[in-house]
Amino acid sequence: MQESIIIRLETEKDFRAVEELTREAFWNVYKPGADEHYYLHEMRNHPDFLPELDFVLELDGRIVASILFTRAWLEDEEGQRKEIVSCGPLCVHPAFQRRKLGKRLIRHAFGAAREMGYDVNVNFGNPGNYVTSGFVSCRKKDVSCFAWGNYPTALLVAELVPGALDGRRWLYIPSTAADCCEDTAAVAAFDATFPPKEKAWAPSQEEFYIYSHSSVVR
Ligand SMILES: CC(C)(COP(=O)(O)OP(=O)(O)OC[C@H]1O[C@@H](n2cnc3c(N)ncnc32)[C@H](O)[C@@H]1OP(=O)(O)O)[C@@H](O)C(=O)NCCC(=O)NCCS
Predict the structure, then answer these.
(1) Gap between the Cα atoms of 49 and 133, Å rounded
(2) What is the pLDDT of residues 72-92, one digit of tens each?
(3) Cα gap 66→39, rounded to integer Å
(4) What confidence score (pLDDT) does residue 183 get?
């Protein structure tokens, strides 16, 4: 029987289910446990959150994937700012990963972002999940982060409109939405409202440590 796949905007009724899904998908992937479910819980109230790009993917009536965005900025050497989008958290339920559902959500959300007038997305992520969706190293588009000339390996750029970045040097200015996760007591208190789950080490944590603590130099 053919599966039915629907991509639609998230509604308030979906909030808890999407938080559960996000917790499940991120658990132990980047750190023992996860804080991404708290992040999205908080980001929906942040001024940089873009509700027009808050999508869920339903497979046979069940939400199995989600993508959210905040606005972010690129600043050129003259201090001129360009508003862009930054995707994340993006997740697919572990039982349904590696079936191109993540790619499908990205493609859909990028189309909607383009219709809103955005032409660039920049986010941190594991390159292996993104390069087949047109993301390139920030080095290739001269997008620095933290300091001019610093090109983190995990910082990825997708032009929603080809050629949108016109050869200038840029500094990436992320939203402050993720700062909420620095409050580890709040993260733990929120996580305690979900069923207990064991925190553990996983090799993907070391992989992401390498990506997020290294830079592209040439
Ligand atoms: C990352 C994630 C969203 C990707 O979604 P997905 O539906 O599993 O991925 P897709 O099937 O769309 O595949 C996307 C790309 O990942 C890579 N990929 C897919 N299967 C892979 C595998 N078995 N091994 C290595 N890379 C693989 C490929 O490059 C693939 O593109 P391709 O099919 O054109 O070759 C999902 O795995 C997930 O939720 N992971 C946990 C949370 C997370 O890490 N989120 C992203 C934050 S950086």
Answers:
(1) 23
(2) 999 999 999 999 999 999 999
(3) 13
(4) 98
pLDDT < 70 positions in the chain: none
End-to-end CA distance of the chain: 50
**What is d(CA 57, CA 77) in angstroms, rounded to the nearest whole number?**
39
Q: What is the pLDDT at residue 1?
A: 77
Ligand 1 centroid to Cα of residue 92, in Å, is: 9
pLDDT of res. 218? 77
State the DSSP string of 129-160.
Answer: HHGGGT-EEGGGGTEEBSBTT--BTTEEEEES
Taking the CA of residue 104 as reference, the ligand 1 atom at the shortest distance is 12
Report d(CA 127, CA 208) in Å as an integer.
10
Q: Report how far ligand 1's centroid is from the alpha carbon of 132 (Å).
A: 9
How much is the pLDDT for 19?
A: 98
Distance 131 CA to ligand 1 centre (A): 10
In this structure, the residues whose C-beta lies within 6 A of any atom of ligand 1 are 25-26, 29, 90-92, 97-103, 125-126, 128-129, 132
Asked if 124 and 153 touch (Cβ cutoff 8 Å), the reply is no
Structural domains in the chain, CATH included, are 5-176 (3.40.630.30)
